[in-house]
Amino acid sequence: MVFSRPSGRIGPLFHASLVIAMMMVPSVLATSAQAPASAMDAGFTAPAMWPVYGHDSQRTSRTDQAGPAAPLRRWSVTAAPRTQNGAPIVIGSEGTVYVGSDAGLISIDPQTGVMKTFWQLQGWSVYAVAILSDGTIIAGANYRVGTSLEHGTVFGLSPAGIQKWDLTLSGNIYNQIAISKDENIYVLTHHGPLYAISSTGSLKWMKQASGSYGGVALARDDTVYASTETNLTAYHPDGQPIWSIPVWVDAQLVVQDDGTILAVGYQCGSGIGFCNPVSVRTLFALNPNRTTRWSLESPSSPPSLGWDGTIYASYNHDIRALNSDGTKRWNMTLNTAGYYTSGIVDANNVLYVYSDDGITA
To answer: What CA–CA distance (Å, rounded) separates 104 from 141?
Structure first.
């Protein structure tokens, strides 16, 4: 089924994530953006918590809440101040939606769509957001982007928007934050180190690296996988390295339930401080011991994971479902070109995808 997409584009990832996330609210089955307030209030259920990019630090992009069978749009918003290009949303325990902007952190009421500036600090742009179990909001922000003063800082904010702590980093934050089971915060800075930060804002450890857009993801046992411009490296939770391989990952890492790492990027040849690609852009499936399980043509976006082990990959003009061994199960033609976004899988293993064709389930 295909549902008409909202008018206008704030940024493909913001629209795709926000619209699909709000589709997960059961009450949208009976309401619409044009419905009177009393009708919209009836039977409203807040959306399930989505505390980090990809729902969890494996980056599975799946939720244990069932999505609607035939949704109607509840509301839509135009982000002002401008949202950071590509900045994903997160959702708190009470359903409040948060997204970074050029002037701080925006919050959106899930019931009404009313948007407000939740937290603002002059000169700071927020790109990465995550939420801890106690409601603390973690914001990765960059100061005076494009100037010689540019640098990144991680802020801890209370649910009321009061700053609790901050930690200045040596690099900018353009990758998404990961949270471990014991609530350690992992931040891989762009062209800078990998940081492990406690939930109270103290530095636990730091590893020199040169971060790439593959970011950081965690396995179920909290093994940390971090991508740099020349290597993909695995770390124990205490920061001790396990292994490193010459792969440049240029899309968000994803870790399957069995520990298989899905990495989109290039095999690197010899080079000092940079990747000399010796392969075309590829989707690698790597075993936890770093050996390659399989590889195939790369998708345009990071994959999503189904509850049955299916891997969903978005290409320029189609969506493909892959078995756990990389073989194709099926594909569906969709105009996904230009949308750097993963699909979302609900509790019933239904895949929701945003494209120029609308929202498809």
So the answer is: 8
Contact 62, 91 (CB under 8 A): no
CA distance 266 to 264: 7
Task: Give the integer Cα–Cα distance in Å for 360 and 334.
Answer: 9
Tokens standing for residue 296: 């195939």
Cα Rg of the chain (Å, integer)? 20
Nearest 5°: phi and psi at 207?
Answer: -125, 130
Tokens encoding 361: 């389930």
Element (H, E) at 12: helix 12-23
Q: Which two tokens stand for residue 30?
A: 């009976």
d(Cα 255, Cα 178) in Å, to the nearest integer?
A: 12
Tell me the pTM.
0.86
Amino acid residing at 79: A
Count the Cβ atoms, other than its own, within 10 Å of residue 331: 14
CA distances from 319 to 70, 149, 342, 353, 358 (A): 20, 42, 10, 9, 14
Domain 2-360 has CATH 3.90.1150.10: no
> For 219-267, how does the pLDDT look when each residue is reduced to its tens digit (9 = 90+)?
999 999 998 878 899 999 999 999 999 998 888 999 999 999 999 988 8
- Domain segments of the chain as ranges: 2-360
